[in-house]
UniProtKB/TrEMBL annotation:
Domain CdaR GGDEF-like span(s) in chain numbering: 151-286
UniProt superkingdom: Bacteria
Organism: Candidatus Ornithomonoglobus merdipullorum
UniProt-listed Gene3D superfamilies: PucR C-terminal helix-turn-helix domain
Residue intervals of the PucR C-terminal helix-turn-helix domain: 340-398
UniProt protein name: Helix-turn-helix domain-containing protein
Protein family (similarity comment): Belongs to the CdaR family.
Matching Pfam families: GGDEF_2, HTH_30, PucR
Record domain Purine catabolism PurC-like: where: 6-127
Length: 404
């Protein structure tokens, strides 16, 4: 539930934001009544009492009349990722508005017509209902991705109950963290609940990014530290999807040191094909680094010839091809501690440009000339042959595939 939705709830129509409107998209996870002595005493360490995304409520005159304390509490709560503040209308101070605006943290004025108990019950009930709906939608989505028993009619009907239309074309996008374990180590995060919360926060951000772009609810889920989203193709072309992903990756408002690679399956018109699009997204997720996709977003249809090879389950054939094309060089390098394989790879990547290859390898042109002659001698390859180079390019792609 977002802060912007508060005054849309029954009995809360009089609850209006009076400052910090830039933060109205902040998520509310729960309500925290900060009128107790422990709240004031924990100003410098609010993380001891909250987990993030709580809506602070202040009604105690003894606290609200202490401007310095309240402003300090607002700042520390904001640092702990609080959702916003609700303050009794009798005690609103200009300093509180100024602080909320400077932080971009929503500040709501609580009128006397709304009782604190109503605020608590209405908001908490709405949050619970929303969470239950999200859980049900996620479970349905997981079924669509993995189950063979769910009928299309049943899936469409279940989705409609939550305001999601499956009567259109879709494709599946898979967001996979590239350095999540390192992120957890850097921040010393070991609690499974906290890890789950982080992924759920990212899930909401991904979902909100696409829902805002297509103006409709979409299905999404987390699975094995990855995020999966079902994207409508009518509202979201491949170009728009790529643009949204790029913006999300660049803005990354949660943690700047978590990065994602995104793989996207093909578009299909039936619910039964959602599973196929997901399978395609999973199959190409390892190819971004192999193909040289710099922005970390790869569509199945763009994988071209590589996908024809890597979609094969015959890894024995792939290894055989790799050994046939590069086996002699790799064995020679192991036996003599040389770098002929690496030299050939860089030479091909440099389009046969000797100067560029030598510079990348930090060697003299004469040394490169010797190595190229040695490579041709060992393999019998003509490195001026287009067919030979094409086969070698594919061999190096397969080599990277198995090294990942």
């Amino acid at each position: 539930m977002k802060c912007s939705e508060l005054n849309k709830l029954e009995k809360l129509g009089g609850l209006k934001p009076i400052a910090g409107e830039k933060g109205l998209n902040r998520e509310i996870r729960w309500i925290y009544f900060a009128d107790s002595l422990e709240s004031v005493q924990s100003i410098c360490s609010p993380e001891n009492w909250i987990d993030g995304n709580e809506l602070y409520v202040l009604t105690h005159s003894g606290i609200l009349n202490d401007v310095k304390t309240v402003v300090q509490l607002m700042r520390s709560a904001n640092n702990a990722k609080a959702a916003g503040f609700v303050i009794d209308e009798m005690y609103i101070k200009p300093e509180y508005k100024e602080c909320a605006d400077s932080l971009g943290m929503p500040l709501f004025e609580l009128p006397r017509s709304i009782r604190s108990i109503d605020l608590s019950q209405v908001v908490c009930t709405a949050i619970i209902e929303e969470k239950n709906a999200e859980i049900s939608i996620e479970k349905l989505f997981i079924q669509l991705l993995h189950s063979d028993d769910l009928s299309e009619e049943s899936a469409v009907g279940s989705a409609e109950m939550y305001g999601i239309s499956l009567d259109q074309g879709f494709r599946v996008a898979l967001f996979e963290t590239t350095d999540f374990e390192e992120f957890l180590k850097r921040h010393k995060i070991v609690d499974r609940g906290r890890i789950t919360q982080i992924m759920k926060q990212y899930l909401r951000k991904v979902r909100e990014s696409f829902e805002s772009a297509c103006d409709m609810k979409i299905m999404s889920a987390t699975e094995n530290n990855s995020i999966i989203a079902l994207l409508p193709t009518k509202e979201l072309t491949a170009e728009r999807i790529a643009g949204i992903i790029h913006r999300f990756k660049n803005e990354n408002v949660l943690y700047s040191d978590i990065s994602f690679n995104v793989s996207v399956g093909c578009a299909y018109s039936s619910v039964g094909s959602i599973k196929r699009s997901y399978s395609e997204a999973r199959r190409i997720r390892r190819l971004a680094g192999i193909i040289g996709n710099e922005d970390g977003v790869l569509f199945f249809e763009d994988a071209g010839l590589y996908m024809l090879i890597f979609s094969s389950d015959n890894t024995d054939y792939m290894r055989s091809y790799l050994n046939r094309m590069l086996g002699k060089l790799m064995d020679y390098d192991k036996g003599g501690n040389t770098e002929l394989t690496k030299t050939l790879e860089v030479y091909i990547e440099s389009n046969g440009n000797g100067t560029e290859t030598a510079e990348k390898l930090f060697i003299h042109r004469n040394t490169l000339h010797y190595r190229i002659e040695k490579i041709e001698q060992l393999t019998g390859y003509d490195l001026n042959s287009y067919e030979t180079l094409s086969n070698l390019i594919m061999a190096f792609k397969i080599k990277k595939y198995f090294e990942q």
